[in-house]
Amino acid sequence: MTSILASIPSPSQNVLEIGPLTIHFYGIMIAIGVIVAVLVSKRRYERFGGDGELLERVAIWAVAIGFLGARFGYVLTHTGDFIDRPWGVLFIWEGGLALYGGLTIGALTAIILLRKWNGDIFAFGDAVAVGIPLAQAIGRWGNYFNQELFGTPSSLPWAVEIDPNIAAAAGYPGFTTFHPTFLYESLWNIFLTAGIILWLEYRGKLAKGSSIALYLIIYGTGRFVMELMRTDTTFRLFGLSRNGWLSALAVVFGIGMLWWMQRRGEPRVLVGPPVFIAPGAETMAKPIEDEDSSGSGSEDSSGLSFGDGKGGQASPPSSS
Questions:
Q1: Which whole-number Å values give the CA distances from 158 to 9, 155, 179, 212, 228, in the listed order?
Q2: Which helix (DSSP H) or strand (DSSP E) does residue 15 occupy?
Q3: What pLDDT score was predicted for residue 148?
């Protein structure tokens, strides 16, 4: 009883068996995270004047190809784990997705498709700036079920209990409780990454394209800190893991992007009344296609021009 009250117990199993079917909790958490991200991003993209169906199409491809990039990124840096069992490369339910690899490949896929299908790249980026950290917050609990990605030993009341064999394999024989970095990252994503973005959007402080830049800054900072505690890295340069260096790069890139977007100062399109996941005073009462059957853009009384309802740029209003 004392150990349970003084730490977070790890789950007794990481699979759910239904007859001949074995379902891994890791996969369940990843799937839930993806669904939440798509639903949240779709609603935000629609409020930013975009086409929700377009976002769904792009998201399907970006997620699928992004997963391949995430798995490839992990395998590339853990080749020794698959020498004796190369087929294990396919077993993603065992864990092993390189987040930055998935984000990079997924983002490139989304940009290519948005350009092809005339979507609004910056509105799309702002839309997923809240959806992605929520997906990450949920997906990290898959690591909890797999007893992986924990930090250094800890005796804090919220330390997570790890199987002694797993702890010994990680280089900490004799230790049983560790920093729950999966929990730290999950809370960081919900309350800081998504929370700060939504708060600044509510206050109308962000120009178009700035939300995704803030995501890079806030998430990158948190991940940099987590990497200082995590024990699963196979490589360090000057004491910092690969993901630590990538996190620092994400922060620097995000700062530059935020400066540029705020200086550029393009106003957001906000269709209809605000909702919790897409706050801010509306700039348009109705989607553009409801006001103009031709699908061209229009201007409100403030003189700001808006998109075509699918993420594209508005056409100049004709003279009457």
A1: 9, 8, 8, 31, 18
A2: strand 15-18
A3: 87
